[in-house]
């Protein structure tokens, strides 16, 4: 990404806000009054659970659809989701608020996962643009280069776009991802209104969790991924021991 | 939590220029956003939900049908609250659901496109599209196998937005007592899973202060602490029975909730069962980023309770104030906390009063105002700026008052920090609608495209 693009992105981010929805619970910061509870304001109330100690029920099958990778090659999204655990996030590169923050979190997840080579091979990240007019394969390739880890042990991170809006629409509908144009295309934060969601998809293509930006915490997502891997191993063990 | 994480990242993981720049940018953006005012929205909504920026345009009222009144069916009633509209303060739409199933609570999906409303008697959930035409909601789906799919949860109560999902707390089970569960659905109405409340026989590993009764009512999440809090009411055999009979039945009165449960939200695991006697109902988390606490009110003991995290990170529940004179059984039923966490409106059904508490110090609420809203009053909703309040009258079909005190209304007021001033009211019986219960806000500006 060029320096100009970086500056544009920063300015957009600093000016954003009109469409930002996720952190509404954090919009009323003020100094605590005397006598108020003084509990820690940061951090979870409980330690993250041990992987495998909780359930991640199947939510729905992850949908497919025609997509283009950074080289312009066409795939069915379903094929890209099979065989590995996927963290799939919808985004667009002109976004100046939630998407860069989400990309940062995903990049940190990629770093964290790179520390475990076996795990890294069994998962990948997918960022899917809902702005095919501007997010062409080459634009995504440039964007990806800025975010993706170049460590050899890091899990793969694909950046995808759609061939056109008619191919995109059923994908967005299947994931319940509503995208609409803001009345003012020059609006702070970017021209498109959307609610950020990321999907955890198991190796058989079932959605097992949906994250808002609040919960796109690398440690938490990695705990979920390890839970799915344990589920997978348990299933394989059960299948292997069947009469 | 994301913001907190961003600010605390070790430098070693920030690899390239883009990430370094955006790391600091993201922190700035979040800090900037934290200080941005939101002009209006209902304050008790899920934090996962899109918020209205600007004043609410419509109030959607989930309304119990009354035999012989209009079509007698439960319905979603849309009231126009656009200040300059020729139909300001009027009913502009009514959509019946095909029957009468004890309409009670509901909620909007996280993208705010669908309004889910539930019935306590028939356990049906009706899903309305409020995005295509916010002035004219349309019923698009009815879930009529809630009991079967959930594994026996009865009395679908609220509908609480989670990312891409809805959480439906139940009130009862197939035996019609108070043991119940929380049921998850996708936003388009596909069943996902059920989480049963901890009981004495199966505490699910939770620390229990006194008893785990397994009862349910409300369920609300504080994402940044990864906690969910649930409250407890009573089972089908009590809430569907005339109130006069219930209060005279000593055995029946033993079967009201006396617990609140603190959950590890992400793992959906109960961690602590607080002893909160007297049927704790609505839960309202504070919004301030340093305010790790929630309020509730207990219907039978007429108290305000505070559930909070102390300086050592321990979570506690304590009674912090009386609502009216508990000896007179005012029966507090709904509460509404202002967006700045300073003002709490408390409605009590039996005396028809709303009482306003200064809760700047949440451990020491001080009543600053009271007003009689009607013969009975139930729900209260306030705008994000705290300037507009809406009240409805109905509690349950078999508990509502009769005669003059049985009036059924939506009443709107302004609040200037000192007193309520009437704006408009709608007589739901005169309009042939029924008994108004739960309210939520709508706005066409959310769906610009």
Please characterize this protein's 3D structure.
The complex is a heterodimer of chains A (243) and B (449). In chain A, helix 3 (98-113) packs across helix 7 (218-241). The termini of chain A are far apart. Chain A has helices at residues 3-15, 77-81, 98-113, 117-121, 137-147, 165-174, 218-241; strands at 60-61, 66-68, 74-76, 85-91, 123-129, 156-160, 179-181, 192-194, 198-201, 206-211. The longest helix of chain A has 24 residues, at 218-241. By secondary structure, chain A is α+β, with helices and mostly antiparallel strands. Chain A is built from seven helices and ten strands. A six-stranded mixed β-sheet of chain A has the order 1-10-9-4-5-6. Chain B has a single domain, classed as Methylamine Dehydrogenase, Chain H (7 Propeller), CATH 2.130.10.10. In chain B, strands 8, 9, 10, 11 and 12 form a five-stranded antiparallel β-sheet that branches. Chain B has a five-stranded mixed β-sheet with strand order 13-17-16-15-14, with no helix packed on it. In chain B, a hairpin with a 4-residue loop joins strand 28 and strand 29. Residues 1-15 and 30-39 of chain B have low confidence and may be disordered.
